[in-house]
């Protein structure tokens, strides 16, 4: 069934057989009844007029009228005066069909192991809940008129009537090459840059370009679970590498035949513990990549925001052999909903990334690229980051002050890590604290927090919470941090002053 000369008819799998034992009327009744019962025709759906349905099926209108009358009598359909015939709106939802699980596993399951469940705070955006969700920036710092002006600039001209360059708009790549040169000390040109729909796609393209199922990929332990899932989804093997207060322990990286083809690192602000990879380790990591013929993925996700310590150069700025591929994003500096990021890659890899980008989604949204370009070229992005840095420094001070009763004394049950930079901190607990109970109790008191255990691939060697503070207004931040301090103090037997 489909569109006919008698009007539009619902596309239903109705097939009447004149040679069958049952009459055409009862065949039509049975098939309409089945369509309603299995949900193909949902409650409230308008049915085609009797004349149109009869014309579509090549049967007498009287057959359709009789079928409708029977379904009306059974309570399956109802008529509305002057507006037609509808499936009865009060019918309960049809039962779901139960499909038996296959025995064993599919072949694709044997080739690709399971990804880990995403450790996302559930329900933490409910009204009244103070959510310490990591990675959320403060969007209210960007003046609305600046935001509107950027979009007006983006739409000053009509969009192209063709697909754009998969690598990204040339003007934006020129601006980004200049941006990473000024802010991260990276010497690159527009031909080194690929625009993506965020850091997640950037990593996905890199893994597609370099990794085959079964290949080993080194990953920080603990590390960012969403990035780890991208690697697992491509069938690679995760090789967890320990981190300490200074970031990745380079000496723990496998060598020789066991050397991973990729090593994914967050050197500017280790995610989630917050360490900053010192220059000696950066040089050692580059030497490891050279001697093992491996590639380093540098995720520079929030390097714009640093406080007490001077910036260290990007790992890419030290690379002289094309061993580093750099991922940047606007998720923290602007908003993750824009879905825009970029890659700076060595030439051979960059060419392959552009081909894969064209295959995956052709190109990143043209208006979004234009709006971000406007924010960069008129200096608004730089001004916004300066405002945000001041705001986040104040937020960090509030978090530190409110948690001081459980972190400052010598015998404290917790300590704050990673406050030198970024939009989150790690609150590490003493071994005798029950993290799961603290998370549950915090939720009951209207505070949503995530456990550090969620960031581990193997068995955790420490416990605590990961606290994102960037997106919280200062009064909410203070209130939520005090509640956390109170319940952790109660759990750890600390008297609050």
Describe this structure in words.
The strands form 5 sheets. Strands 7-14-13-12-11-8-9-10 form an 8-stranded mixed β-sheet, with helices on both faces. The protein has a 4-stranded antiparallel β-sheet with strand order 15-16-19-18, with helices on one face. The protein has a 3-stranded antiparallel β-sheet with strand order 3-5-4. It has helices spanning 24-37, 50-57, 61-74, 107-111, 144-154, 170-184, 199-210, 225-233, 279-292, 315-318, 347-361, 366-377, 380-407, 435-444, 474-492; strands at 3-4, 7-8, 46-47, 77-80, 84-87, 130-131, 193-196, 216-221, 237-244, 247-248, 262-265, 295-299, 324-329, 341-344, 414-417, 424-429, 447-448, 450-451, 463-468. It starts with a strand and ends in a 5-residue tail after the last helix. It has 3 domains: 3-87, Orthogonal Bundle (Arc Repressor Mutant, subunit A); 143-382, 3-Layer(aba) Sandwich (Aspartate Aminotransferase, domain 2); 384-492, Aspartate Aminotransferase, domain 1 (Alpha-Beta Complex). It is globular. With 497 residues, it is of the alpha/beta class. The chain is built from 15 helices and 19 strands.
Write the layout of secondary structure elements.
Blueprint (H helix, E strand, L loop, with lengths): L2 E2 L2 E2 L15 H14 L8 E2 L2 H8 L3 H14 L2 E4 L3 E4 L19 H5 L18 E2 L12 H11 L15 H15 L8 E4 L2 H12 L5 E6 L3 H9 L3 E8 L2 E2 L13 E4 L13 H14 L2 E5 L15 H4 L5 E6 L11 E4 L2 H15 L4 H12 L2 H28 L6 E4 L6 E6 L5 H10 L2 E2 L1 E2 L11 E6 L5 H19 L5
Parallel strand pairs: 6-17, 8-9, 8-11, 11-12, 12-13
Antiparallel strand pairs: 1-2, 3-5, 4-5, 7-14, 9-10, 13-14, 15-16, 16-19, 18-19
